[in-house]
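Quick start: read one record
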Amino acid sequence: MKIKEAAAAILVLGILPVGTVWADGVRQPASARQAAFEYDNSLYFAADDAADESPSDRLESEIDSAACVAACEPCSCDSCGDCCSGGDCGVFAGWLARDPWKLPQPCLLQSLGINTGGWLQAGITMNGEDPGDNINGPVLTNDRHAELQMNELWLYFHRPVETGGYGVDVGGRVDLLYGTDWRVAYLHGYGIEDKINAVDRFYGFAIPQMYLEVAVDNLSVKLGRMTGVLGYEIVPPMGNFFYSHSYALCYGEPILITGLMANYKLSDQWTVLGGFHQGIHRFEDNNDRLNFEGGLMWTSRDERVSLAYAVDFGRNDFFTPVFHLEDEYVHSFVLKYQLSENLLYVLQNDAGFANGTPGNPDAEWYGINQYFLYTINETWSAGLRVEWFRDDDGTRVLGVGNLSARAWIAAPGFAGDFTELTLGLNWKPKANITFRPEVRWDWYDGPANAAGPYPLPYDNGTSSSQFTLAADVIVTF
């Protein structure tokens, strides 16, 4: 499909939303800080202390805040009656309102303090190169050309801990996912999804999080499977501005871990985290070694500036089709600066290194991401992402989805520079609906892969660049 046809397909997706906005009229501008920070994950993804919000706390608090009362208004939910079952108010009460709509909360779970909810994400990507294999090169997670993808149908059960800085509380969380995103390495926990799904399945099931949490005063400790603490972008789609993901998230960071993670709030400005896990993307231990992951975050008193540094190191025994890598180190540095009421700037640096086994080379990768996020008004915002990612030894950007099953394996990889420029819009007509169109350009600067089946990363191995148009819709519940 040519670029003109691709643009027409994306335009069709946007006709109805644009018409609705003009019918509603332009709304008053909203705070850029709220739009930019509420789904953030610069250091930690699952703490829920609304009063002491770390960057990612806003994601959890947004999802969990609309419990039974919000779902059933104007009914009373003081007791588990018909209202909490959706009886008097109906299952879709509040759906058309701008306030968040929430699934009716089961009375038993509500009595235990457990919130239930989730989201549905689906999108389509049109590749201007019209690749013969319908694969958008190493771009994740919208990796298929001209195919509608249900990336995530997500359901969670969450009991947040709440001590207010004093006392003891116990909680936990379980997240269940079905969709095409299960194939992506950062959601693919080796040792569990491998047993649940066939390796060549396009749609599959994953358990991104499953942990117990104990809080004592300002200390909380999680035990189980959870997302890691590195980087700026996160797994839940409403936590990111763009539909497509950065190379840093997909190939440079340990996003999924299984182990123990402690979070201690030193003061209003400082938070420290640290813990151990069984290896990057490992649900089961494969080498009787533990990795360390931890970090430190500082937020200014006026909350306009924050700095986060996180690191992960240990033995991973990660095997690519050619390289055998053992001890690994990777760090992430994130600076966020609220330049004005409506404009947020984010700078991220990742760097990693892994030792090769005897007879195999070492691996090194690093990169810089920059984000400019601007709130136009209450329903519209615009964003720009500029990224440079260096795969120095061709060991990271190897392919798409499950590397052991997909055809897009270009071992030994592409030892060069990957650059991407992404422009996008977010339109949020209702609290539960977000529409995200984007355009993206990708370039590769480096030698051709003479050993693998694909000499270059894009257009079925024939091009060093590509142009894509994409859009997705997220419905939370």
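The first helix runs from residue 3 to 24.
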